[in-house]
Design a protein that fits this description.
This protein is an alpha+beta fold and about 600 residues long. It has a domain at about 5-205: Aldehyde ferredoxin oxidoreductase, N-terminal domain (Aldehyde Ferredoxin Oxidoreductase,  A, domain 1). It has a six-stranded mixed β-sheet with strand order 2-1-6-3-4-5. A hairpin with a 2-residue loop joins strand 7 (about 120-125) and strand 8 (about 130-135). The radius of gyration is 22 Å and the shape is globular.
């Protein structure tokens, strides 16, 4: 079989040992790659008794059959593990030359186990693997680490690293690369830090085996040309995801003041147009011809990379209406190696606690200087930052029940940048996301605002499952960026064709949907196995959206309806073949070839 290398690297940091191992055709066909492989390894190897920050946890870097090939936006990989913030399966998707080079070194995935006795980094060059002392890098920010390692290794080396937040095990610390790519908001940086692993440098010069080299080159070129000629390409190249600020404001879903409102009075000061007026340049992931990392100068003249989520969560959600200040916080987060979404969400929670007199510290909405200090303290786990570093679920549990309704998380992961007071479909997307509240698996809101927005319909549930199959299944399994499809409208049909050119397999979209369902059901099974007291409440977003109406705008006084949300959740479970409590049934597990799960559930 071509397309998959079928080799992986297993590295034990406790024993200073590595082995090159193989996996079989069955695994490739059943799970595709990326998230599929990670979910399978998670189920097989990371059992409920494993503490996420212990040496027993494993960190998985997983590519897919399209990663690293000359095809649109194929320079990404998954970083997955047991998440310290949710306590179950977590992953993130990171653009980096490390993904391409892992394949060129001859591996489809890498499993890092154990814990090194002192800070180290890993250098992989083809099948040569070294564990190198990193005491001199420990404590440095991600930008500095990348610079030092870049000078030491070839210009084509793929480098990923963690910052002080990962070293100090901030539960929402990330893995970063290329001065602004950031993945694994489920705390993958903390897992890396718990292993004393500061960075990885990956180099490779082997060919990635494909089924039909010529066909792949041709179809890849055709796909790149199609992207370039799409009508929305030009605007995308100007604004990237930043245009979503204006869109969210227009539709009243831009989170403001800890998701109290969906409107922000200074949205125009932090939006895509404002960004364009100060934009310096742009950068992006390997093999991408629609790069979207917009670089601007922040209020202290540093280079910051802006995306919608960063700006909404470190801007409107905490009351900051100055894009240069938001940019500064974003650059700080990148350098500290901390997730912007969870940071903005958790800071919003703290400010609300302060304004209600629940904590002693005084910090106001939009107080840039105090927020900046708090972010810094969080990465170093000092003072109030040490509390914040544990995320909103933990903070709210510590502070008491009154805070639960506005602790904006699902399953422990902080909600990303869409207010859902008046969008039940998107609320359900957050509720049922396989890694906790993240929009990555289903951005149903873009369609929902045009389709009976406040209605609770079966059609919305169908649409949600379709999006989860495509985004969370196909794109996370093939491991390519989903933006060509989402933002430029590159037709979905391209992907089975690209897969065929790479692997020779004639999978149609339905085959890929079945794989996606298998991955979803396996991840859901991991949650159920992990949480002894699992029940459907785990799939319900916080009470604020059900109980506290918005006070402004076109959707003033909106709240979600609890009973109707539950009706949609019932439909969702039924369509997925899960029980009334969201637990996969035996027949669903059998139909998806997951019989081995039954005995452990
Ligand atoms: C993603 C999450 C997002 S989602 C954003 S902005 W987005 C935030 N970016 C951060 C950042 O930057 N710095 C930082 N310190 N923390 C950050 N946290 C936030 O992380 C990213 C792009 C984006 S930008 C998105 S939507 C798409 N995500 C994809 C995905 O998940 N899968 C896929 N197959 N393709 C995707 N393409 C797009 O990639 P997490 P990246 Mg990210 C500065 O990983 O954990 O899912 O968090 O990886 O290479 O930076 O690309 O409006
Ligand atoms: Fe990376 Fe953006 Fe290109 Fe996607 S569109 S591959 S996130 S640069």
């Amino acid at each position: 079989m071509q397309g998959w290398i079928q080799k992986f690297l297993r590295l034990d940091l406790s024993k200073n040992k590595f082995i090159v191992d193989r996996y079989d055709d069955g695994m490739a066909k059943a799970f595709l790659g990326g998230r599929g492989f990670a979910a399978k390894i998670f189920w097989d190897e990371i059992k409920p008794e494993v503490d996420p920050l212990s040496p027993q946890n494993k960190l998985i870097f997983s590519t897919g059959p399209l990663t690293g090939l000359p095809l649109p936006s194929s320079g990404k990989f998954l970083v997955a593990s047991k998440s310290p913030i949710t306590g179950s399966y977590g992953d993130g998707n990171l653009g980096s030359w490390a993904s391409v080079n892992l394949r060129k070194a001859g591996f489809d995935f890498l499993i890092v186990e154990g814990k090194h006795d002192k800070p180290c980094y890993i250098h992989i060059k083809n099948h040569k693997v070294e564990i190198i002392d990193a005491r001199e890098l420990w404590g440095l920010g991600t930008l500095e680490v990348e610079k030092i390692l870049r000078e030491k290794y070839s210009k084509n080396a793929g480098i990923i690293q963690i910052g002080p937040a990962g070293e100090n095990k901030v539960l929402f610390s990330t893995v970063t690369s290329q001065n602004g790519r950031s993945g694994g908001r489920t705390g993958m940086g903390a897992v890396m830090g718990s292993k004393n692993l500061k960075a990885m440098v990956i180099e490779g010069d082997k060919d990635i085996p494909v089924n039909n080299e010529r066909a792949l080159q041709d179809i890849g070129k055709e796909a790149y040309d199609t992207i370039r000629n799409k009508p929305n390409f030009e605007f995308w190249m100007r604004q990237g995801t930043m245009m979503t600020i204006e869109w969210s404001q227009e539709h009243n879903v831009l989170p403001a003041y800890n998701f109290k409102e969906g409107l922000f009075d200074r949205a125009d000061k932090i939006g895509g147009d404002m960004m364009e007026s100060i934009k310096e340049t742009q950068r992006g992931c390997p093999y991408c011809n629609m790069i979207c990392g917009n670089i601007v100068k922040d209020c202290q003249n540093g280079n910051a990379e802006l995306d919608y989520e960063n700006v909404a969560m470190l801007g409107s959600n905490i009351g900051i209406g100055d894009l240069k200040q938001v940019s500064y916080l974003t650059r700080m987060a990148d350098d500290l190696g901390i997730d912007t979404i969870s940071s903005g969400n958790a800071i919003g929670f703290i400010i609300e606690c302060s304004s209600k007199g629940i904590i002693e510290d005084r910090i106001d909405w939009g107080d840039f200087d105090k927020i900046k200090d708090l972010l810094h303290q969080t990465a170093y786990r000092k003072g109030l930052g040490d509390f914040l570093a544990q995320g909103v679920r933990h903070m709210s549990q510590k502070l008491g029940k009154d805070t639960t309704p506005w602790a904006m998380h699902v399953k422990g992961l902080e909600i990303s940048a869409y207010d859902c007071h008046s969008t039940p479909g998107m609320a359900l997307a957050y509720g049922t996301s396989p890694i906790g509240a993240h929009h990555k698996d289903a951005w149903i809101i873009a369609w929902e605002v045009t389709a009976g927005r406040e209605d609770y319909t079966e059609e919305k549930v169908d649409k949600l499952i379709e999006q989860q199959r495509i985004r969370g299944g196909i794109f996370e399994g093939l491991v390519t960026c989903r933006f060509p499809w989402v933002e430029i409208n590159l037709e979905l049909d391209w992907y089975p064709k690209l897969l065929k050119a790479a692997t020779g397999l004639d999978f149609d979209l339905n085959d890929l949907y079945t794989i996606a369902d298998r991955i979803y059901t396996l991840i859901r099974s991991s949650w159920v196995r992990e949480y002894e007291k699992w029940n459907r409440n785990m799939d319900i977003p916080p009470a604020r959206w059900f109980e506290e109406p918005t006070t402004e705008g076109q959707f003033k006084e909106s709240v979600l309806d609890y009973d109707n949300y539950n009706v949609m959740l019932d439909w969702y479970y039924e369509k997925r073949g899960w029980s009334k409590d969201g637990i996969p049934t035996q027949s669903t597990l059998k139909n998806l070839g997951l019989d081995y799960v039954i005995k452990e559930l």
